[in-house]
Amino acid sequence: MNQYVSELMDAVKAKNPAEPEFHQAVQEVAESLTTVLDRHPEFREAKILERMIEPERVIMFRVPWRDDGGVMQVNRGFRVQMNSAIGPYKGGLRFHPSVNLGILKFLAFEQVFKNALTTLPMGGGKGGADFDPKGKTDSEVMRFCQSFMCELSRHIGPNTDVPAGDIGVGAREIGFMFGMYKKLKNEFTGVMTGKGLTWGGSVIRPEATGYGAVYFASEMLKTRKEELKGKTCLVSGSGNVAQYTVEKLLSMGAKPVTLSDSGGYIFDEEGITREKLAWVMDLKNVRRGRIAEYVEEFKGASFTALDGSLGENPLWDHKAECAFPSATQNEISEKDAANLLRNGVYVISEGANMPSTIGAINRFLDAKILFGPGKAANAGGVATSGLEMAQNSMRISWTREEVDNRLYNIMKTIHEVCERTAEKYGTPGNYVNGANIAGFLKVANAMMDQGLV
Ligand code: NDP
Ligand code: 2IT
Q1: Which residues contact 13 (CB under 8 A, 6 or more apart)?
Q2: pTM exceeding 0.85
Q3: Where exactly does CATH 3.40.50.10860 map onto the chain?
């Protein structure tokens, strides 16, 4: 670590104690930026990076609601409005018991760079609550979402801050929150993305993150004149991103063999087919069941329970060429990275946000495999949210073909920009540096133009 980065990290840790995920996200970016900051002393002087790591605003609020048994419950809600230099704050809401300020700051910080890469005018934000939708009834989820929106509605708006989904927030939750916003404001606006198709949503938005991560992997492979067809793929998670990753892999002729949730993972050596995926989608999105049930339905597959403790995840210890981590942060430890490399994996496209630890990333970069970091590889979701905003503003809807073409072209452009930027700054093939530097430069230049605000 050079002196500037180590001093910056000391200050970040002192000022933001007990936020290890935020420290990790900042460190990864700061290490990528050393050459840029050397070449552009004006950014150092204007304290651009120091400003970027300080949220423009953090809102933290009480979310009281009543469960079906009539018992009062209290959760904590947040919105981190990180950076609005290039557009309104934009980013998802996460409902998961692990949610805290540090996790949302890491996600909001990553979002700033990711959104800059999409080519669309969106700043970065993230929010959520330590609420666990698992095991709750629809009416409990509705009451929670309505209470959450009662406060959040004061701080968002179609030109201010446009939330969307993330872990634990899908079509059902977006519907309940949008409904409450509309009632409170007496306005029908594009204040959220991921909306239903009959009330302002965009086709392809549910599919976009998974599709985009697969398009990104395919672009990386093209640099070696290869394609996804015939390749065995490890996929983690079984939610929105994992499901549409599997769907697009199948349409490209690849063979996905794993899926997981917080209870464990399934390994299906024969491959997860379209028919099996349809069953998983019903299990997860309609019946809200557990992935363990897969092996009761499809006898050839095996289930391995995971205790959730980080360190080593056997999902990453199977022979394959590609991996698509699509569950959560830090799900690939350095030991897992070594297992992946030993098993022949040489393409990794991160559908999740920060799924690899810094130790794991360093292993991948040292091995010179095709490693697409989340900021670039999973940007298709928020990019399509940007397309939903554009359609809402114009009050029209594009066709599937139109949106999918735009998504594909955005992913192709992100890939090109990352590749070109990595090369320009002396680290060819390093998409981590490419994504961090390209995202930084766009936001930094906008901040320079707008003065000290
Ligand atoms: P979902 O809630 O739809 O699915 C999340 C999946 O990951 C579930 O299978 C869940 O299992 C598993 N998971 C979540 N937390 C943990 C954990 N702590 N340990 C083990 N498994 C876990 O979320 P998404 O698919 O939307 O999000 C997945 C990842 O992709 C996240 O990192 C998110 O930030 C990122 N992402 C999402 C985008 C989107 O458009 N939705 C866009 C870009 C990135 P279980 O049900 O047991 O909790
Ligand atoms: O992490 C992400 O990029 C998302 N959860 C999607 C955000 C969005 O605004 O669509």
Answers
A1: 23
A2: yes
A3: 2-188
Model confidence at 171, pLDDT cuts 50, 70, 90, reads: very high
Check if 255 is active-site.
no
In the sheet that holds 302-305, the strands lie side by side as 258-261, 264-267, 302-305
Does residue 157 carry a pLDDT above 90?
yes
Cα–Cα dist 342/268, whole Å = 20
Interval between CA 240 and ligand 1 midpoint (Å) = 7
User: Which distant-in-sequence residues (6+ apart) come within 8 Å of 57 by Cβ?
Assistant: 80, 81
- 3-class secondary-structure state, position 10: helix
For residue 167, the CA-to-ligand 1 centroid distance in Å is: 4
- pLDDT tens-digit map of 195-208: 999 999 999 999 99
Site to substitute for ligand 1 among 262, 324, 333, most atoms within 8 A of C-beta: 262
CATH for the 2-188 domain, from 3.40.50.10860, 1.10.10.10, 3.40.50.1100, 3.40.640.10: 3.40.50.10860
| Nearest-angstrom CA–CA distance, 248 and 235 | 12
pLDDT digits (tens, 9 = 90+) for 32-89: 999 999 999 999 999 999 999 999 999 999 999 999 999 999 999 999 999 999 999 9
For atom 43 of ligand 1, the residue with the nearest CA is 378
The pair of structure tokens assigned to 173 is 């939750």
Ligand nearest to the CA of 325: 1
Retrieve residue 87's tokens.
């557009």
What percent of the chain has pLDDT above 70?
99
Q: Do residues 235 and 326 lie in contact, with contact meaning Cβ atoms separated by under 8 Å? A: yes
Confidence of residue 310 (pLDDT cuts 50, 70, 90): low
CATH of domain 208-372: 3.40.50.720
Q: Which residues of 74-87 are buried (b: 16+ CB within 10 A; e: fewer)?
A: ebebbbbbbbbbbb
Residues of the chain with CATH 3.40.50.720: 208-372
Could you tell me which of 124, 159, 120, 42 has the C-alpha nearest to residue 449? 42
> According to the model, what pLDDT value does residue 307 have?
79
